[in-house]
């Protein structure tokens, strides 16, 4: 079950892990608070994780319509 959708989801999960880790670490280093760092880590990367996934899906949809 290694479809393009599954591959995109796996890539997105890998990106999310790195993004959340970087956001949490930088938030903790700046604030010294685990709670604030967790809050920052949940807000900022959501757009960065959902955006690329939706962008790839839209690109595939458009290429199928255009080039099929």
Describe the structure.
The longest helix is centred in the C-terminal third of the chain and has 34 residues, at 34-67. 91% of the residues lie in helices and 0% in strands. The chain has one domain. It is elongated and about 55 Å long. It starts with a helix and ends with a helix. The protein is built from two helices and no strands. 6% of the residues are buried. It is mainly alpha-helical and 68 residues long.
Compact description:
By secondary structure, the protein is an all-alpha fold.
- Give the count of structural domains: 1
* Multimerization status: single chain
Q: Average pLDDT value?
A: 86
Strand content: under 5%
Distance linking N and C termini: 24 Å
Q: What order do the helices and strands follow?
A: HH
Largest sheet: none
The best one-word shape is: elongated
Give the low-confidence spans. Answer: none
Helix content: over 70%
State the secondary-structure class: mainly alpha
Number of distinct helices: 2
Radius of gyration equals: 16 Å
Number of strands: 0
Main features:
68 residues, mainly alpha, 2 helices, 0% strand, elongated
Lay out the secondary structure.
Elements: H1 4-31, H2 34-67
């Amino acid at each position: 079950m290694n479809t393009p959708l599954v591959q995109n989801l796996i890539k997105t999960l890998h990106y999310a892990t790195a993004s959340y880790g970087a956001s949490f670490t930088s938030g903790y280093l700046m604030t010294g608070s685990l709670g604030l760092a967790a809050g920052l880590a949940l807000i900022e990367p959501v757009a960065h994780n959902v955006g690329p996934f939706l962008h790839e899906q839209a690109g595939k949809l458009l290429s199928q319509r255009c080039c099929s």
